[in-house]
Write a structure and sequence with these properties.
There is one protein chain. The protein is an alpha/beta fold. It has 16 helices and five strands. Helix 5 packs antiparallel against helix 8, helix 6 runs antiparallel to helix 7 (163-177) and helix 7 packs antiparallel against helix 9 (219-235). The chain is globular, with a radius of gyration of 20 Å. It starts with a strand and ends with a helix.
């Protein structure tokens, strides 16, 4: 993987270089830029997997740079940094699809977690490229849809803290993986995807304090660890002040898991009504509208990038379990069907 650090302060770029063992984390090359304009020039020359950028910079600041990065559709994940007084900048960063935000001065633990979340997204993108190659030769969309539906329901069972529902979905997944008709190429994809999905949950809930992390695909260990996470959630004591930016970051990480307003409220231990008021006041749209917009934006990206993925699979990957609902919502938001959108030469 390749990393780009963007900051007008040399000492800040040096800190980011030294604060983490980048090579051990899989980053083989690191480049630097002193402002947003130089960063765009570098991105235009060669691909980067991750960009860590300051927001307040000369010539072209972080907010304007991010708009241009997304307009150009560079496949790069972005972590933004900003001072506490630049709270508005952070909202702009999230609106322009930054992966995460960090307040300066950046600490090792916070940066490591943000990079880990970005790596999860990078892995997902690489997995989609793999499954697209598989689908060039075979139509496996029905099995894929069953897998994504079970995985989404699995996550919702954790959020709702429902052990019976969790066990049911684990059994369904296990049946899929042990089906004799399952093609080996698709099985490899599903195993990698579920493995990284569970690792993401372990990081999110600090599950390493409960038992060992899943280090390779093992259905029994995955089952045991998810049950352990569920038990931890059931018995946890929660006491903190709600931060709407945390809610946005959570939605950005989980919208494809078919979460709803009720799921988000449950996750943050707050009433739906109170969450709705706070979120709309600071973000300017409702929680559900924000979730739906994230899904649509993600689906648009998949439609343009992965032509071998059919519409049902893309809808499922974007968090829409029902394909007809996906079509209806997509058309309401874009004025065209998913098929029409995919066929447009330039958007």
């Amino acid at each position: 993987m390749r990393l780009l650090i963007v900051d007008d302060e040399v000492w800040s770029r040096m800190l980011i270089r030294k604060i983490l063992p980048w090579r051990e984390m899989g980053f083989t090359e690191i480049a630097e830029a002193g402002d947003g304009q130089v960063a765009l020039e570098l991105l235009n020359k060669q691909p980067f997997d991750l960009m860590i950028t300051d927001m307040r910079m000369p010539r072209l600041d972080g907010a304007e740079m991010l708009k241009e990065v997304r307009a150009a559709q560079y496949p790069v994940e972005i972590i933004v940094m900003s001072g506490y007084e630049d709270y508005v900048y952070l909202h702009q960063a999230l609106k322009t699809k930054a992966t995460d935000y960090l307040l300066k001065p950046v600490g090792r633990t916070e940066l490591e977690k943000a990079v880990s979340r970005a790596q999860d997204i990078i892995h997902t993108r690489q997995s989609y490229q793999h499954i697209e190659q598989v689908l060039v030769h075979e139509d496996l969309s029905q099995i894929l849809s069953q897998y994504y539906e079970s995985k989404n329901q699995l996550y919702k069972s954790l959020i709702s803290q429902d052990p019976v529902r969790l066990t049911t979905q684990l059994d369904r997944l296990q049946s899929l993986f042990t089906d004799d008709t399952l093609k080996s190429t698709l099985k490899v994809y599903m195993e990698k995807d579920l493995f990284h999905f569970v690792q993401k949950l372990e990081k999110e809930y600090n599950h390493q304090n409960v038992s060992s992390l899943v280090k390779k695909f093992d259905m029994q260990q995955i089952r045991d660890n998810l049950i352990a996470i569920l038990n931890m959630l059931i018995h946890q004591t929660v006491s903190y002040k709600l931060n709407v930016l945390d809610v946005q970051t959570y939605i950005d990480a989980h919208f494809s898991d078919s979460i709803s307003l009720a799921d988000v409220a449950t996750r943050f231990h707050i009433s739906k009504e109170h969450l709705s008021r706070l979120f709309k006041k600071e973000v300017g749209m409702s929680v559900q509208a924000y979730i739906t917009q994230k899904k649509i934006d993600y689906a648009k990206n998949l439609l343009k990038r992965y032509h071998q993925l059919n519409l049902a699979t893309i809808g499922m990957m974007s968090g829409f379990i029902d394909v007809q609902y996906f079509h209806r919502v997509f058309r309401n938001h874009t004025g065209m069907t998913p098929t029409q959108y995919r066929g447009k030469k330039s958007i």
